[in-house]
Amino acid sequence: MSRRYDETDHESYERPRRRTRPRTKERPSYDDAVDGRVITVDRGRFTLLVEGRRVMAMKSRPLGRKGVVVGDRVRVVGDVSGRDGSLARIVEVRERTTVLRRTADDDDPVERVIVSNADQLVVVTALADPEPRPRLIDRALVAAYDARMAPLLVLTKADLADPEPLLRTYRSLGVPWVVTERGGDLTEVRAALDGRTSVLVGHSGVGKSTLVNALVPDADRLVGHVNAVTGRGRHTSTSAYLLALPEGAGWIIDTPGIRSFGLAHVDPERLIEAFPDLDEMTEECPRGCSHGESEPECQLDDALAEGDVDPDRVESFRRLLAAREGGQEY
Ligand SMILES: Nc1nc2c(ncn2[C@@H]2O[C@H](COP(=O)(O)OP(=O)(O)OP(=O)(O)O)[C@@H](O)[C@H]2O)c(=O)[nH]1
Ligand SMILES: [Zn+2]
């Protein structure tokens, strides 16, 4: 994580206030705490999965203003029975392996972490109806590479259109893909999700709900239950929720209503690190070179002139680099 993120990260710990007593006396021990995972968050209340049970919880005071987000692995004390009306307390958030951020926008002026501990970003795109939007795919890929998450394209509605034209755009980047179609077999999708925590993103109408429901047969009931417990309607606009895939075959996090990622601060150096073969060629670049098309002395241009690199790959990388700018969606 870069320094700049620390400075703008409103989810991070506040510096503790001046203490009147020695720290050791203030800090209770939580030997009886158990592990849980955050399924969904709603107005300061958290639904956790604890030993297979759904447990409602709130943050405990020692967490201060530390954010707790979907995907977090937490330690919990108190009533973890999951019985109606029970409320446990989250006493610790374990270190996050990854975070996916959402850019500040008109609806919410603060950049926030929306999901943690996901290792794969699944971009769900219809091959037709609605038409694919490559720029949004590019922006989702930038978010994935920046977050050090593996990207996966799930191309739906293969019964309506041939995936080949779209795949041509992503082949040189080496982005893995699977296709689905109405009533089709999901073996390949399940294999790609197996053992991972995957965040699914996709625009309205691409078939994301259809996919989630096919993967998790009781998804509607589970999500409905989550919201019934929190007392909020089913159609919340920006909530994410985590679902276990059957037979322990991984986790998916659906992100209804999430329309933008935190791309504003994506560092070109971090992006190119996702492409080690290109990264290697930029060692002699001038300081601060973004490796973009208009850089006067970028070593990628030398490599292109020498024929040392696949031009499609450089072009695709530079397209991603440019996709960071502008546009609030994704
Ligand atoms: N032909 C075809 N239609 C599909 C496929 N998958 C989903 N659909 C249809 O596409 C429409 C949109 O599907 P949804 O699953 O509701 O899409 P969504 O991405 O969840 O959209 P929102 O609910 O608006 O966020 C529905 O009419 C589905 O029946 C597919 O593989 N092939
Ligand atoms: Zn360069």
From TrEMBL:
GTP binds at residues 156-159, 202-210. Keywords: Cytoplasm, GTP-binding, Hydrolase, Metal-binding, Nucleotide-binding, Ribosome biogenesis, RNA-binding, rRNA-binding, Zinc. Its main location: cytoplasm. Residues 1-15 have a biased composition (Basic and acidic residues). Binds 1 zinc ion per subunit. Its EC number is 3.6.1.-. Zn(2+) binds at residues 285, 289, 291, 298. Residues 1-30 are annotated as: Disordered. CDD domains: YjeQ_EngC. It is an enzyme of class 3 (hydrolase). Residues 107-261 form the CP-type G domain. One of several proteins that assist in the late maturation steps of the functional core of the 30S ribosomal subunit. Helps release RbfA from mature subunits. May play a role in the assembly of ribosomal proteins into the subunit. Circularly permuted GTPase that catalyzes slow GTP hydrolysis, GTPase activity is stimulated by the 30S ribosomal subunit. Monomer. Associates with 30S ribosomal subunit, binds 16S rRNA. HAMAP family: GTPase_RsgA (MF_01820). Belongs to the TRAFAC class YlqF/YawG GTPase family. RsgA subfamily. This is Small ribosomal subunit biogenesis GTPase RsgA. It comes from Nocardioides malaquae. The lineage of its organism: Bacteria, Bacillati, Actinomycetota, Actinomycetes, Propionibacteriales.
